[in-house]
Inverse folding.
């Protein structure tokens, strides 16, 4: 047996290594029945969590202050598996956080708030030779009275409770070996570094080569993203964040709502002639276009109508390639032309159709191959398809599922390969141009549709197997045959 190593004074000052605990959010309480069924109570809700063993129920009493995560393991004994199941149930519902710190409930180094529903804190083994560096997507900011460390790549955010960690992160702007970090006063043990590495807030750098740090971040898909664009994407969609989202009126009572119509400028006013004529087909379409949220399931859209719709809005009209502007040695770039306008003729947007009720087409998820004018089936789990449909129903406050739910996804790299700083903004502008085209084409065919402002990028990634930063949703549109307005009595 090796002789125990002498603990030097510096190590003593740092104290015992911090422990990882799972802890209930402050507003949540647990209740257990005699048969082992547990429920979480928060606000006015009660969420059943399932049945657990008597030992697990007893250990769960520690959750309000912190239950050591070592008590939970998917491949441990029956009690550890039970506790892991309970923690996952709570985490999936956003009712739980993790703390890394000492045994005292207020002795936190960091508090970890899951952002992905299936986040589980992992501490991969680090060797002295491992070289790590701060991800260029990581950032720290004040949130209320706390300092938070976040990244659009991370499955969780870290509330920083120890100023030494901020200093350590500053040093990690350049690559360091673990052996170098361990010698620093602000070193807080391997668990924190491992947790940050697991969340891609720290990344492994093969060599201390500053020129290849952008590549060290991961695949080419990540190299192509600007920092603010990836942050904007993950923070303005559902799936990879746990922040409140949508029409929540957060400023009610604090700031008055702005008027619907801008107050007129005080300058000279030139009154324009009225034109309420509807002479052209376009004028008719613009006049008739409106949002349809409820669909007639006795008269589903037909495959022929869907084919005409897709042909009119998104089919490739022409293809060509041309050399890179301003460079003699650049690659030839391929272009297409399609019915709606697109920045740089990049046409980075793809249509994925969740088919619920279409005459002539089996329900499921399909990709529209805009070149071949064909639908390609994608094998997805029925519960994922249903979750996608249900979030559209919720967003539209609709009475039933749309007959077809179109997800507009972007191949991000197609546009960011060319445009710096404005890539994501251009994508959203393209979504706007396409959305109006979808509305007008639906109206023209006597169909109904409605744009949807929210999309779940994590769900789409699970359904398609595509990395969220490579190709993912940036818009949605419900389509079908609207319920005919009832005739006046
Ligand atoms: C970008 C965008 C996002 C929208 N998101 C939603 C949505 O999530 N839910 C919904 O019911 N309607 C949504 N709409 C539809 C608008 O509510 C609708 O266009 C607006 O009320 C005007 O009504 P109209 O389309 O019938 O003229 C969205 C429209 C746009 C352009």
């Amino acid at each position: 047996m090796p002789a125990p190593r002498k603990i030097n004074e510096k190590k003593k000052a740092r104290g015992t290594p911090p422990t990882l605990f799972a802890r209930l959010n402050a507003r949540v309480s647990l209740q257990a029945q005699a048969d082992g069924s547990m429920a979480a109570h928060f606000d006015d809700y009660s969420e059943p969590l399932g049945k657990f063993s008597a030992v697990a129920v007893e250990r769960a009493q520690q959750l309000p202050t912190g239950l050591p995560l070592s008590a939970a393991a998917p491949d441990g004994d029956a009690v550890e598996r039970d506790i892991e199941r309970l923690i996952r149930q709570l985490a999936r519902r956003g009712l739980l956080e993790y703390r890394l710190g000492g045994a005292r409930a207020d002795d936190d180094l960091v508090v970890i708030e899951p952002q992905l529903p299936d986040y589980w804190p992992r501490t991969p083994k680090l060797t002295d030779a491992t070289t790590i560096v701060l991800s260029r997507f990581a950032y720290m900011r004040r949130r209320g009275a706390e300092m938070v460390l976040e990244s659009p790549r991370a499955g969780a955010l870290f509330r920083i409770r120890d100023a030494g960690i901020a200093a350590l992160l500053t040093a990690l702007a350049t690559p360091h070996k673990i052996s170098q970090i361990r010698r620093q006063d602000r070193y807080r043990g391997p668990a924190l570094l491992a947790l940050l590495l697991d969340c891609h807030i720290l990344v492994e750098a093969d060599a201390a080569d500053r020129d290849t740090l952008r590549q060290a971040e991961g695949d080419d898909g990540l190299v192509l993203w600007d920092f603010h664009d990836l942050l904007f994407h993950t923070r303005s969609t559902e799936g990879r964040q746990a922040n409140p989202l949508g029409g929540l009126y957060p400023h009610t009572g604090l700031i008055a709502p702005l008027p619907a119509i801008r107050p007129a400028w005080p300058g000279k006013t030139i009154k324009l002639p009225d034109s309420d004529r509807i002479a052209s087909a376009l004028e008719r379409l613009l006049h008739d276009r409106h949002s349809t949220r409820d669909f007639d399931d006795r008269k589903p859209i037909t495959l022929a109508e869907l084919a005409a719709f897709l042909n009119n809005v998104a089919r490739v009209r022409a293809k060509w390639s041309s050399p890179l502007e301003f460079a003699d040695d650049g690659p030839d770039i391929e272009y297409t032309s399609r019915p709606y306008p697109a920045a740089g003729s990049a046409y980075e947007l793809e249509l994925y159709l969740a088919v619920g009720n279409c005459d002539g087409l089996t329900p499921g998820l399909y990709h529209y191959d805009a070149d071949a004018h064909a639908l390609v089936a994608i094998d997805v789990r029925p519960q994922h398809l249903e979750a996608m449909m249900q979030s559209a129903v919720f967003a539209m406050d609709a009475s039933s599922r749309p007959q077809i739910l179109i997800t507009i996804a972007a191949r991000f790299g197609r546009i960011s390969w060319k445009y710096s700083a404005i890539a994501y903004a251009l994508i959203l502008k393209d979504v706007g141009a396409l959305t109006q085209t979808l509305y007008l084409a639906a109206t023209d065919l006597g169909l109904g549709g409605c744009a949807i402002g929210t999309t779940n990028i994590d769900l789409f990634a699970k359904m398609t197997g595509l990395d969220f930063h490579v190709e993912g949703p940036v818009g949605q549109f419900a389509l079908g045959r609207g319920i005919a307005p009832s005739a006046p009595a």
In short: Residues 1-13 have pLDDT under 50 and may be disordered. Residues 290-291, 293, 395-396, 435, 450-454 surround flavin mononucleotide (CB under 6 Å). The domain at 283-480 is CATH 3.40.109.10 (NADH Oxidase). The two ends are 93 Å apart (CA to CA).
